Amino acid sequence: MTASFLILRIGDTRLALPMAAVREVLPLLPIDAPPGLPRPLLGFVTLQERPVPVLAPQLLLDPKGRMTGVDLSAHLVRLREDICLLVDRAEDVATGIVGPLAADHSLNAAVIGELDLSDGTIAHVVAADRLLLDGERAALAALTAAAAERRDQWSAA
Fold first, then answer.
1. What span, in angstroms and rounded, lies between the C-alpha atoms of 16 and 90?
2. Angstrom distance (rounded) from CA 130 to CA 60
3. What is the C-alpha to C-alpha distance for residues 151 and 154, in angstroms, rounded to an integer?
4. Element (H or E) spanning 51, and its range?
């Protein structure tokens, strides 16, 4: 079945995120990064007066990976579940059929297939709901609530 995907670039890697999982694409916004956050959580952006967590997908997909500097032309991809992914670039929207992926190539079972792009390259299709484990979602919710409380305390001061 043909579906639409947002094509993301992270370094030399291209990811394809189902459009059904995407709420919006934003320019780079100020990220509040209090100390002590888990490695894949870069901090929080304020959207509609609420903190929204910003995650580094390359660290979620490759825990041993490294983040290099953030380019000012980077994008935040806000998912339907109210999480932002920091990517080098949201490049395009493509349609296609997801091809199979060898089981040993799927990182944390989040990469579910491959999408052939019109320029002859391949994008790894990511299932947004598999980026975090249940325990990680619970920890992220607690950290987001703490960020909201911290923001409210500063607003009241």
1. 10
2. 10
3. 5
4. strand 50-55
Q: In what order do the strands lie in the sheet with 22-27?
A: 22-27, 75-79, 84-87, 50-55, 41-47
The yes-or-no verdict on residue 117 having pLDDT over 80 is yes
Whole-number Å distance between alpha carbons of 100 and 115? 9
The model carries a pTM of 0.91
Band of residue 102 on the pLDDT scale cut at 50, 70, 90: low
- Cβ contacts of 53 within 8 Å, gap of 6 or more: 41, 43, 44, 83, 84, 140, 143, 144, 147
Q: Which of 59, 54, 60, 27 is nearest to 42 (CA)?
A: 54
Give percent of the chain above pLDDT 90: 68
Which amino acid does the sequence have at 128? A
Six token digits for residue 137: 């979602």
